[in-house]
Amino acid sequence: MVQYKEYGFEGRTAIVTGAGSGIGEATAIELAKGGAKLALFGRSAEKLEKVKEECGKHTGSVLALSVDVSSPDSVKAGVGQVLEAYGRIDILINNAGIESRLKPGETFFGTLFDQLDEETYLDFFRVHDYGHYLMNLAVIPSMRENHFGRIVNTTSVTGLHGNYSTPAYTASKAGAICQTKAFAMKYGRDGITVNAVAPGMVDTPMKIDATPREYEIVANKTPLGHVASALEIARCILFFAQENLFVTGQCLTCDGGSDLA
Question: What's the pLDDT tens digit per position in 51-66?
Answer without folding.
Answer: 999 999 999 999 999 9
